[in-house]
Design brief:
Blueprint (H helix, E strand, L loop, with lengths): L10 H15 L1 H19 L4 E4 L5 E4 L4 E10 L2 E11 L5 H30 L5 E3 L2 E3 L2 H21 L2 H11 L17 H4 L6
Antiparallel strand pairs: 1-2, 3-4, 5-6
Helix pairs in contact: 2-3, 3-4
Length: 200
């Protein structure tokens, strides 16, 4: 427990406590994250990046190679300083970075696929839209219909495409023996249509 009156140098302790609470509340998403990180580590040990294909055919390659670093001597305010500069990549895969980045890359690829499907469906109905990441906007007369499209495409995307199976099949092809993620759950995606807070 962190005392609310603690000095600001306890911010990391507070962040760690919040993170632990979120993990305790969201055990299945934590399980997915842990499984993806383990897959990324196992593939990296074989010198390969974890990869998958989105429903629209985009190949995602989650590759993190060790940095090739050079030390440079520079003079700043008449004082000699040594500065490290990344000038490229070494061969091989950085196991730690690959594991740390895979969940974010996975989520971004899901968001990107959803965005593409929304844009295609909106264009088909001649609805002009703008988006930033997973936020969508259009003019007021088209807003209600665009909201329906966003929800329809989200539900359809996840009903038609098993993302975790896709990644597992790719890793298996690279010789990884980790079992598939099985604790999927029973979420009724149709509830997204009724959720007031989804895409508001």
């Amino acid at each position: 427990m962190v005392d609310a009156g603690s000095p600001t140098n306890r911010a990391k302790q507070l962040a760690d406590t919040i993170y632990k609470c979120v993990e305790d509340m969201l055990r299945r998403p934590k399980g997915v994250r842990d499984w993806l990180e383990q897959l990324a580590r196992e593939v990296a040990k074989k010198g390969k990046p974890l990869r998958w294909v989105t429903p629209l055919g985009l190949l995602v390659i989650s590759i993190y190679q060790p940095a090739k670093v050079k030390n440079l001597s520079v003079v700043v305010n008449d004082r000699k300083r040594s500065v490290k500069l990344a000038v490229g990549d070494k061969n091989g895969i950085d196991e730690k970075k690959s594991a740390n980045a895979v969940t974010a890359n996975f989520v971004h690829s899901v968001d990107a696929a959803h965005l593409q499907l929304v844009a295609l469906a909106a264009a088909k109905e001649r609805i002009e839209m703008v988006s930033v990441h997973d936020c969508f906007a259009t003019i007021a007369p088209d807003a209600a219909r665009l909201n329906d499209i966003i929800r329809d495409q989200f539900i359809g995307l996840h009903k038609r495409h098993n993302w975790l199976s896709n990644i597992w099949v790719s890793a298996k092809r690279d010789g990884i023996k980790l079992p598939p993620f099985s604790n999927i759950g029973i979420l009724d995606l149709e509830q997204v249509r009724k959720s007031f807070f989804a895409y508001r």
